[in-house]
Amino acid sequence: MDYWDHQGWRDAFSSPVFTQRQEAYGRQFGLPSVYTPEMVVDGIAQFTGSDAARAQSEIARAASRKKAKLRIARTAAGLEVAVEDAPRSADVYLALADDTAMSQVAAGENQGRQLHHVAVARGIRKIGSVKRGAGFQRVVDLPAGSGAQRVVVFVQENGAGEVLGAAVLAPV
After folding, report:
1. pLDDT, tens digit, for every residue of 29-51?
2. For 141-168, what is each residue's pLDDT tens digit?
């Protein structure tokens, strides 16, 4: 069972992988339970996503930290990924997200409501690793239909560690 599936309806966008990531953050931050709308910035700060002042502060703080340089580009062969100057050893992940989606909630606290979603994660996978100060370069296959999705590549320390860099491509 995934995170939201316990409220009497199946979340069409849920995934065991996403649930495991959210639970890892819950353990990392010592939370009694995971919740939505939780916001995690750079893998090191968490708070309620509706706290706009805290979000601006944490994002500004994250922008001041040293980051790996990432370049990503869609090509005929797939997605070209290049990472340079990683400040620490870390894993490289690829995530695909639908720009928007809708869901009709059948049960639970939002029963009967139609919800509009933005940047809906549809998949995430580890595509490699990078060593401190080193680089990473690879062409990664993209699934059919991914041209209509956001592509996100990020570098993250093991598990739910600090995010050391990220790059995003809009849908084509």
Report:
1. 999 998 888 899 999 999 999 99
2. 999 999 999 999 999 999 889 999 999 9
Q: Give the distance from CA 93 to its chain's centroid.
A: 9
Short-list 29, 67, 79, 73, CA closest to 156: 67
Q: Is 3 helix (H, G, I), strand (E, B) or coil?
A: coil
Beta bridge partners of 72: 81
Beta-strand ranges (E) seen in 32-169 are: 38-41, 45-48, 69-75, 78-84, 90-104, 114-130, 136-140, 149-156, 163-169
List own/partner pairs for 105-110 with CB under 8 A and 24 or more apart.
Answer: 105/9, 106/8, 106/9, 107/7, 107/8, 107/9, 108/4, 108/7, 108/8, 108/9, 109/7
Determine contact, residues 146/135, Cβ cutoff 8 Å.
Answer: no
Torsion sign over Cα 119, 124, 129, 132 = positive
Domains along the sequence of the chain with CATH: 66-169 (2.60.40)
